[in-house]
């Protein structure tokens, strides 16, 4: 009985070690393509990025624009999780959505396309380098009803740039366009 317990624990430890090492790249500071659940987890990826960027503390050349009127500042981001909140909120790993996206992949990219036009996140494109590190993530979101329609296009290039372009059409108020562009220094 003791030997069987020892074997069980040794086997468990082995799988834990193998599983833990398979999810990391040789350069742990570089973002890699890891899938959990049915789809690639944007939430996990961007929470790790928020933590990584908080430790790096890069200066950001940030431009915010509303209806074409830009304002530019060099800033230190104190809360990267908040800064990347729209990216995190675009995660499609919900049990109810398990069969709601078509997944297509090539050697260098992974594409999720919604098969349900009612879902907020309509498309995710994940481009990667040959070594598996993430090169670019593009996300298209859309929501609306009879009174308004909102579309968002999000782009993220690790260690380089993030961009959010949002367009709102509100029946009574009219159209508005917003953009945020952060260039990491």
Outline of the structure:
By secondary structure, this protein is α+β, with helices and mostly antiparallel strands.
Explain how this protein is built.
The chain is of the alpha+beta class and 185 residues long. It has one domain. 24% of the residues lie in helices and 42% in strands. The protein is built from four helices and nine strands. The chain has helices at residues 2-22, 42-56, 80-83, 85-88; strands at residues 59-66, 69-76, 101-105, 109-114, 121-128, 134-144, 148-157, 161-170, 174-184. It has a nine-stranded antiparallel β-sheet with strand order 2-1-9-8-7-6-5-4-3, with no helix packed on it.
How are the SSEs ordered, and which strands pair?
Elements: H1 2-22, H2 42-56, E1 59-66, E2 69-76, H3 80-83, H4 85-88, E3 101-105, E4 109-114, E5 121-128, E6 134-144, E7 148-157, E8 161-170, E9 174-184
Antiparallel strand pairs: 1-2, 1-9, 3-4, 4-5, 5-6, 6-7, 7-8, 8-9
Query: Helical segment tally?
Result: 4
Strand order of the largest sheet: 2-1-9-8-7-6-5-4-3
The secondary-structure class comes to alpha+beta
The helix/strand series, from N terminus to C terminus, equals: HHEEHHEEEEEEE
Number of domains: 1
Q: Tally the beta strands.
A: 9
Helix content class = 10-25%
Instruction: Give the overall form.
Output: globular
């Amino acid at each position: 009985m003791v030997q069987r317990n020892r074997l069980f624990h040794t086997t468990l430890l082995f799988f834990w070690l193998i599983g833990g090492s398979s999810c990391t790249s040789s350069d742990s500071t570089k973002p890699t393509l890891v899938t959990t659940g049915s789809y690639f987890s944007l939430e996990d990826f961007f929470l790790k990025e928020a933590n990584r960027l908080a430790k790096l503390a890069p200066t950001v050349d940030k431009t915010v624009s509303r209806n074409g009127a830009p304002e530019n500042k060099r800033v230190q981001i104190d809360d990267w999780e908040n800064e990347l909140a729209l990216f995190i909120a675009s995660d499609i790993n919900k049990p109810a959505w398990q069969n709601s996206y078509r997944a297509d992949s090539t050697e260098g990219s992974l594409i999720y396309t919604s098969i349900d036009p009612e879902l907020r996140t309509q498309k995710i494109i994940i481009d990667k380098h040959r070594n598996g590190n993430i090169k670019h993530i593009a996300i298209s979101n859309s929501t609306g009803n009879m009174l308004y329609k909102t579309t968002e296009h999000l782009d993220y290039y690790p260690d380089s740039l993030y961009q959010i372009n949002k367009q709102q059409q509100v029946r009574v108020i009219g159209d508005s366009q917003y953009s945020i562009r952060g260039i990491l220094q």
